[in-house]
Amino acid sequence: MQDKEQASSLIDSAFAAHQSGDMASARMYGEKALQLQADYPDALHLLGLVAWSEKDIDKALAFIERAVELDPDEPIFRINAAAIHEKRNDFQRVVEHLRIAAQRAPIDATIRMRLARAEVKIGDNKAASESYETVCRLAPDRVDAVAGFVRSKLLVGSTAEAFQAALTARRKWPGDISLLKLCCAAAIQARNWRELLEVSALWRRADASDLNACRSLAHAYMQLRDAPKARDAFEPVIKVAAPAVADLSAYARFCLAAFDYAEAERVLGEVRKLAPDHAELQFAQARYDLFTGDLEKSERHFLRTIELNPDMPQSYVHLVSIKNGDIDDAMLANMQRMADDSGKQAEHRAALFLAIGAALHRRSDYPKAMQAFIKGNALTTDLLALEGSLYDQTRAEEERRRDLAFFKSGVTSSAGDKAPATPIFILGAPRSGTTLIESVLAAHPEAFGAGELGALPVIHDAAVAWAGQAGVEAFGDIPEEQRKAWRNEYVSGWPAIGEKKYIIDKQPLNIRSVGLINALFPEAALVHIRRNPVETCFSIFRNDFSSGWPFACSLSDTAHYYGEYARQMEHWRRELNDEVLLLQYEDFVENFEQRARELIAHCGLDWSDACLEFHKAQRPVATFSAAQVRSPLARQKDRVLERYGDLLAPLIVALEEAGVDLTTGAYMGEE
User: Fold this and answer.
1) Which residues contact residue 548 at a Cβ distance below 8 angstroms, ignoring those fewer than 6 apart?
2) pLDDT digits 0-9 by tens, 61-80
3) Is residue 463 within 8 Å of residue 526, measured between CB atoms?
4) Residue 236 and residue 216: Cα distance in Å, rounded?
5) What's the pLDDT score for residue 509?
6) Which domains does the chain have, with CATH numbers?
7) Partners of 525 in the β-ladder
8) Is residue 178 a contact partner of residue 203, using CB atoms and an 8 Å limit?
9) For residue 283, how many C-alpha atoms fall within 13 Å in the half-sphere facing its CB?
10) How far apart are CA 6 and CA 435, in angstroms?
């Protein structure tokens, strides 16, 4: 008993010496304690600490591991053993020791925190998330624990939990930049683009020097389909002394999306000087050439992109479009490999499956093509579910009824500020021929094809929201001054059109805004292009609309959307009579010159023979039809229903239920 007491006293002296930095005395006391009491765990532990302080890691580990053997329930032994194993990068042993230490000291947040970090190191993110969660409960003010919990939950795919925890943490520690960055990561994985926009803006304001904040902000704007703001947000990234080639190429792509072709070409010129054979440059250049009409150059650049980086899915997708699905077996196999790779981004896999379907369609392998289309759309459906933006048929019907009641015909507005050009609105469902009609009009020397302008849908939603807040039941009851402001907002968002007297807007969402257009722009020309609904809907289903058009992922939803569109346009046909020119796509193609002349005359333009050779016009086109409109008009030889037969049965049934004429696309039901 006396020896044990003396040994304990010697250990106290040894620890005191160790604390003061007197390692020689600490060792002496520890060794004397071992002489008095063999295999004394505290003495072994102390001698291990001395050896560790003297950088003899192997000796330190031997002493402390022996102490653990003799007293496995002492947390401090295991904590220090774990620390030495960490120095040796043996994180599996670190975890083993800390898990037992945590069991022995269940309310010690520090042990749990160290355990969580070690579990991350060995890739056990599920266990790490549980450990971090325990720390958050034991020490709720530890921001590093909350951050670790969010990161680990993201890594195991528990997106909803991670996102909610990130939101809660951001509110609790609003000025913590590391949390803002983490919130951005969580928002991206949760596909909550509004939150990403808000947090990225906060991050940018909190640390203007961090260009990753600009990248994140630009990404948010692009996901929200505001390309001009994405371009502007990204601009500081390329203003540094030596911007990276990848950043310059990305900025060029933002410029293309914003229809800023001059700036895109300028930046691409800079990149060509720095790295003429960089994959990102080749890809951006290929897109530029595609949109501006040089299809041969575009194809060459996409092929070169694939040579430089065979794992860029978007290159294959664009190439399939340019070549109308005519690709070789090797390229198809490479696309299939990437599409089947669950490690690839879901958006890219979805686009690849749809492109594979297009290639199989070209080969007349229709059953396999349909399988590929279904797989691609299933992936997009999963993304829409994550975003909470799946197509809701009931809601779509409610919105149609609301819009038709709110934007009544007969509302008149004064001209407001004189517009620099007369608007021409091309109305129609996606893939119905709107790009063809725009191309014919834009070939006229007095008309400017602006593509799918985004302003009117924003104004439409703003007007509905304004009325809801003010308790106004009809657009005509909104003060004239506010209506003028919206008119001017639309005009101010136009691109530079030079001396052109007409500007063409083919935004598909404008079909819901015919009453708004009639009220704000009584001088505008309205053109409705309608196409066989089976062809239209199946074309929508086959193309990669990503999450922009939620209905596009399902044949039945696409048919339902088409039915809602057909109802809206039938309503406005009755209300506006001859003010809207109705063109049937099939008839327009069959009797091209006659119908083109009628189109030009309806829009108030004098005839120009250039309209007959629209495919030769040098102008940018940034839609799925970018390649098609560069070729002379061709008549369709056979219909998709003849090729796909029963595979299209769900579409046919849904169109009939929606009251749509299966030949023309007209609404045949009764209101």
Assistant:
1) 225
2) 999 999 999 999 999 999 99
3) no
4) 12
5) 93
6) 2-163 (1.25.40.10), 310-390 (no CATH), 399-657 (3.40.50.300)
7) 424
8) no
9) 26
10) 95
